[in-house]
Specification:
Helices cover 48% and strands 8% of the residues. The chain is mainly α. The protein has a domain of 68 residues. The protein has a two-stranded parallel ribbon with strand order 1-4. Strands 2-3 form a two-stranded antiparallel sheet.
Length: 99
């Protein structure tokens, strides 16, 4: 992970912990993988409400960088069995439907 992305992750974890009523006292893990898990969890459970624009800008940039690192799978690349597509989360990081 590049330094800028690492700084964004740290910033976002701190911001989402501070924003949370239930997890304000949560200890921030040292491990990068665990920080990602914490951030994803906090983003998923957050109740929709106003958040600082700076946090939203950093979040948007961070998520774009994460998406760029993933392999994008096109619908045409997925094998067809009797018109049924079978895929799993581990296999597909992103699916673009090209209809």
């Amino acid at each position: 992970m590049n330094r800028n992305k690492e700084q964004m992750l740290d910033f976002l974890v701190k911001a989402f912990i501070a924003d949370s009523d239930n997890y304000k006292n949560m200890e921030i893990p040292e491990d990068e993988t665990q920080k990602k898990v914490v951030l994803r969890s906090l983003m998923n459970i957050r109740i929709p409400r106003k958040m600082d624009d700076k946090v939203l800008e950093v979040q948007d940039e961070y998520l774009k960088l994460c998406a760029e690192e993933k392999r994008i799978v096109e619908i045409k690349d997925i094998p067809v069995v009797k018109d049924i597509f079978l895929f799993g989360k581990e296999i597909l990081q992103d699916l673009r439907l090209m209809l």
